[in-house]
Write a structure and sequence with these properties.
The chain is of the alpha+beta class. The chain is built from 13 helices and 17 strands. Strands 12-14-15-17-16 form a 5-stranded mixed sheet, with helices on one face. A hairpin with a 5-residue loop joins strand 16 and strand 17.
Length: about 525
Amino acid sequence: MKKKTLLVLISVMTSALLGIMLLQIIWLSEGIDESEGAFSNKVHLVLGETSKKIREKEQQVLYNEIDNLDTQVKKIPKKQSFSFVKEDPVNNHFYVYKQEVLIEESIIPLGQTVGGVQDSLSIINEYSAQLKTELPKISENQTPKSLSPADYDILTGNNLTIDRYVKLKGAATDIEDRISISIIDSVLTKELKDYNIDAEYEFAVLRKDSTLTKVTTKDFEIDDKTYYSSLFFGVNDETEFILSIHFPKRDRVVKGPIFGQFILAALLMSIVVSVFGVSLYYMRKQRKISEIKTDFVNNMTHEFKTPIATINVAVDALKSPQILDDENKIKHYANLIKQENKRLNSHVEMVLRMSRLEKNQIDLNIQKTNLNTIVKNAVDHIRLIVEDRNGTIFEKYTNDQLMIKADAFHLGNVILNVLDNANKYSPESPKISVEVFKENDYACIQVEDQGMGMSKSVQKKIFEQFYREETGNIHNIKGHGLGLAYLKKIVDLHKGVIEVQSEKGKGSKFVIKIPL
């Protein structure tokens, strides 16, 4: 896949994911707003119903007191004076005309008859305006026990209704005597249950100036989770007391169901993002593998091309009649073919070794061996190549016998790879230092050069397969990017450690530590 196409695909997928996430956030926000609105509406209905029922309870109490008053009034002697009584001897009827008086539980309007039969409207019209029946006032010492003298005075006022009486009596009564915490709590609990609100709550009765009364629960607070409703009204229908309810854990009730949806949405979104991330990772990895494969093919082609070309030249030379007569030249070209063939074989072996290492198919032949001997053999192998570039290898061995348990063949290839890199990445006349020494419980091989060095970012990647600082089809330095990857795996199999110190333009130092 082309880089441009990949970038376009990534941009489109990222935009789509961001759009989905934005929609989820908007939907969740709207869901929370709707839930809060529904909750607030329910609470206001609960408060309204609660306040109404509390007022009705108070009125019912006063109704009962008035009923008691009626019972007591019956016991009071009544003196009724009538302005007019008419008898009908023919029909054996009599008529009594009076103004409004209280007789048991009935209020008799002006002009209505009490007893007898009203059969003449003319009599009513003629005499109703003149008639008067009076009920003597009840003295204070005759007041029913269920009402105070002040209550009775209120009740017997002109043009007074029960509702007005309740308001006047309430104004003269402390709120603590009108209502209690237990009554409010019982009504609130029932109403909240009826509206399916299951939440902890605190409540209070406030005065109209928002100050608290004694009818307040212990942990009541006023904040954005507090709701209000008029509880009691004054004589002029203005709010005198306010019922307020507070939900300490309102967010849990309001956002609880939405939170579950949020968790599910977040889980699904995380899955989508994870799948997208994994897909993106593998797309980039596949692209990188494709590039590495192309680089590897180009590098290996380059590595094979030179020895093959050299072998072809040597073979053509051997066909020449002049060379056939010269035994020394025949040996020279035969030796050249052998060396180039060995070079080709080493490249093939390196690829095969890495393949076996990847599949864990390499069995190390661990034996007790002298590390100095392994290092000297590797140095001797590359010495001629370095000297051909007018270079020098400096050797230092601190111990004559430094015995370790290792695979001499693979460890020798590791040291040879480090020395080969030190030569290839050094300018003309390379200077390479090799030192073998003991440090704590490790036998150490240190290879240092004065070549081009590496940056910190490159040092983190040098042990990756096929990695080379220069990529693409053009390479100034021959190689296939497998040497250091092979080195790392072999040292790991020996339970060893590799340390790298390098600075761009100032050379590199590799230290290989093998346990003793």
